[in-house]
Amino acid sequence: MMGVVPELFHRFPRNIVAIFSGRNLLWHAVAIGLTIAIVTSGGDWAYYRWTRAAEFSVLARPALRLGMWMPVLWPLVLLVAGLASKNRRLITIAWALGQAALLAYLITSFYKAITGRRPPPFHGAFRTPAMNVSAVIDSSHGFQFGFLKGGIFWGWPSGHTTVAFSMALCLTMLYPKNKIVVLGALLYAFYVGLAVSVTIHWVSEFAAGAIIGSVIGMTVGKSFRTESQETHLH
Question: Which residue has the higher pLDDT, 122 or 108?
């Protein structure tokens, strides 16, 4: 199949089905249930009031940029390095990370399109559309269910978080015994996710993105990890 279909789309339809099947589907339900619990308990608003300080914004800025550019640069750098050195392992990892990021983006866009979650109120330099800056009130219950009522940029779940966790978990599936790679990938994912939770997203959107992104990453990682690759990637 690798020789017929571009490697970026290796088992692509099968992976989509797997992400929404069996135990993985239950994890989507957990993400939804956890969001409901956080929203209805007032957790989103309490977290918002606690974290919207200038210090958090300063710490978060680098992570927001990382979350935007790493999904493109990370696979691209590995792909170029793999092609230049004729290293099949690096090439495969690059395509695996690319597929994980692509699926995470598509799936979060789908969820956002139908949930229409309103972003948190304006804070500092992180200004969002249609924001009432004259009065900050609890808007954490602001869902607009339908289709494209809230766009696909802001909303539930956090795209930054989902993509970061999908790539991190994909990498850990390919390097399961490399503690440095696993720790580094997870720290990156949590840094990005926590950064958006104190700036442009509600904390429930970070939590849901971490869960859904992990499902995507593990599914894609497993599909790329053949028996021959397992021997070398450990």
Answer: 108
Q: For 120, which DSSP code?
A: P
pLDDT of res. 226: 63
pTM exceeding 0.70: yes
9-120+144-233 under CATH 3.90.1200, yes or no: no
Sequence ranges of the domains in the chain: 9-120+144-233
Q: Band the pLDDT of 56: cuts 50, 70, 90.
A: confident
Q: Who contacts 43 (Cβ-Cβ below 8 Å, separation ≥6)?
A: 37, 203, 204
Is 132 a residue whose pLDDT tops 60? no
User: Among residues of the chain, what percentage have pLDDT more than 90?
Assistant: 69
**CA distance linking residue 232 with residue 192, whole number of Å:** 29
pLDDT at 157: 97
Which residue, 109, 68, 107, 70, is CA-closest to 219?
A: 107
Query: How many whole angstroms separate alpha carbon 74 and alpha carbon 76?
Result: 5
What 3 state SS string does 140-171 have? CCCCCCCCCCCCCCCCCCCHHHHHHHHHHHHH
The answer for residues whose C-beta is within 8 angstroms of residue 93's C-beta and 6 or more apart is 78, 82, 171, 174, 224
Tallying the residues shown for the chain, one arrives at 234
Half-sphere exposure of 227 (CA within 13 A, CB side): 0
Question: In the 8-state DSSP scheme, what is residue 123?
Answer: B
